[in-house]
Write a structure and sequence with these properties.
mainly alpha, 89 residues
């Protein structure tokens, strides 16, 4: 992901936002949140869950972070902290 003109980036974004809308926006529309700040906090929690915990069938039932780490163990892009360390060195 990340190349200019890659149709696969759009598909991944569409999948992400469809899941977000299905799982979170409907709660907002139903009045579950007391205010906008609570909705923002829930969105932040959902994104953290989506990237680190939620299993994805297309990724072999791994979370996106686990999938990246398993398939790119030497890639500094998979670990932002490692990327920063390599720049600082």
């Amino acid at each position: 992901m990340g190349r200019v003109g890659s149709c696969f980036d759009n598909a991944a974004a569409e999948t992400f936002f469809a899941a977000y809308k299905r799982e979170t926006v409907t709660m907002l529309e139903s009045g579950r949140f007391a205010d906008e700040a609570e909705a923002r906090r829930e969105t932040f929690r959902w994104i953290a869950f989506y990237n680190h915990k939620r299993r994805h069938p297309r990724a072999g039932m791994f979370s996106p972070v686990d999938y990246e780490q398993r398939h790119r163990p030497n890639d500094t892009n998979a670990d932002p902290a490692a990327a920063l360390m390599s720049i600082a060195a």
